[in-house]
Specification:
single chain; 168 residues; mainly alpha; 2 domains; TniQ domain-containing protein; TniQ
């Protein structure tokens, strides 16, 4: 990793949302700063590690040095980044990507807890999570790629999918 990172003064800092997944945050940050995943990986010195994190692959867990490098570029404190990661000992579900569209309708971002292996549904709305588009049946893309909050295949908006979520 590069210990002396040169960070452009034009970086647009993005504040993470409460409970947001690192994948979704990184996508929002990259779009706000017109940077690709590989450019952000290069700028942080983390390379392809960021692409793994966007897919909820945290084995091995991010090191302190890695988090410090990312924090420097995205202009956050390391502790803010830790909140975007699963708590120690919590297993993640890499696939499929899951969403509570009722939550998404209230505040459009991917919640980290939706990818916990033990999460069966949304405790707030008492609804099962969706893992595929009810219109076309395609699985959802990783949250880093969610630009407009819709199915990448048929463009059905997440906010219109709530009626397809079953009660828990």
């Amino acid at each position: 990793m590069n210990s002396c990172l040169e960070i452009p003064s034009w970086i647009f800092p993005i504040e993470p949302y409460k409970g947001e997944s690192l994948s979704h945050f990184l996508g929002r940050f990259r779009r706000a700063n017109y940077a690709s995943s590989s450019e952000l990986g290069q700028k942080t010195g983390l390379g392809g590690v960021l692409a793994r994190w966007e897919k909820f692959r945290f084995i091995p867990p991010p090191s302190q040095k890695q988090l410090e490098a990312l924090a420097q570029v995205v202009q956050l404190e390391v502790e803010q980044l830790r909140l975007l990661l699963p708590p120690q000992g919590v297993a993640m579900k890499h696939e499929p990507i899951r969403v509570c569209t009722a939550c998404y309708e209230e505040k459009p971002y991917h919640r980290l807890e939706w990818q916990f292996k033990d999460t069966r549904g949304c405790d707030r709305h008492q609804l099962r999570l969706l893992s595929e588009c009810p219109s076309c049946g395609k699985r959802f893309k990783i949250p880093a790629l969610w630009v407009e909050g819709h199915c990448h295949n048929c463009q059905t908006q997440f906010t219109g999918m709530k009626r397809y979520q079953k009660e828990m």
